[in-house]
Design a protein that fits this description.
This protein has about 250 residues and is α/β, with parallel strands linked by helices. About 50% of the residues lie in helices and about 10% in strands.
Length: about 250
């Protein structure tokens, strides 16, 4: 007899309850989850399962259910206390979405499931102080996994090989680790210097320019600008003045 093909699983949204850690406000986290639902629907998923953090408030799930209905999708809540891996195995979701949960990497590496991240970019800028221990997992997920807001990246993505990860993410993680704890991670300084010298485009996303300046690393603020205070208006006026000066010289 012919065994019928298994129907595609739903999209699985992983909640982390980041507001309890002071990383996001409750309102920001609620909107982050809503963005995950919108992103999943935009990719064609009309069945969505939300796995909330056990301590998350119940009204979040009600708001997500309403958002799904508004978008023409159906959202159910996996409120039983099971590991995400249990759902990966039993549900075989068509997509796993989260912020920086390590379960995203487990889903991709060990279960071969499509994954997507959302919200890591703003988090990289918001985490404070720079040596916040969450910076490493946020950096890894941001660097390796596709952004939910980029449908082409999500649908065309595959998990990098260990060799590719070693060539790319390892250098980034070493550089971030040194910038976070230069005293404890002093042997990583050459790694940080090599990475920053060859990946100037990563400076703004993963590093604070003033921290690089304090550590004397590539990507630091030019010496003639280090006097400028941390004020957006003053910095904008300074950039405009430099532009006018170059135009006049030309």
């Amino acid at each position: 007899p012919v065994v019928p093909a298994r129907a595609p699983g739903p999209a699985l949204v992983l909640g982390q309850y980041l507001s309890t850690l002071g990383i996001l406000t409750p309102r920001q986290e609620e909107e982050l989850h809503a963005g995950m639902v919108r992103g999943a629907v935009a990719l064609g998923h009309t069945r969505i399962v939300f796995k909330p953090h056990p301590s998350a408030p119940a009204h979040w799930t009600r708001a997500l259910e309403e958002e799904a209905v508004r978008l023409g999708a159906v959202l159910t809540v996996a409120d039983s206390p099971v590991l995400a891996e249990t759902l990966f195995e039993s549900m075989r979701p068509a997509l796993v979405v989260g912020c920086f949960s390590t379960a995203l990497l487990t889903a991709a590496s060990f279960y071969g499931l499509p994954v997507a991240r959302l919200g890591t970019g703003p988090l990289l800028q918001q985490l404070s102080p720079y040596q916040n221990s969450n910076r490493i997992p946020v950096t890894i997920v941001d660097a390796l996994l596709p952004d939910l807001d980029d449908p082409a990246a999500v649908t065309g993505w595959s998990m990098p090989s260990p060799e590719e990860i070693a060539r790319g993410a390892a250098g980034l993680v070493g550089a971030v680790g040194y910038a976070m704890q230069p005293q404890l991670q002093a042997p990583l300084r050459p790694v940080a210097e090599r990475y920053l010298s060859g990946h100037r485009d990563a400076v703004r996303r993963y590093f604070k320019r003033r921290r690089l300046t304090a550590l004397g690393l590539p990507g630091a603020i030019p010496a003639q600008l280090t006097f400028i205070p941390r004020n957006a208006t003053v910095r904008r006026l300074a950039r405009r003045a430099r532009t006018l000066k170059r135009a006049a010289a030309g």
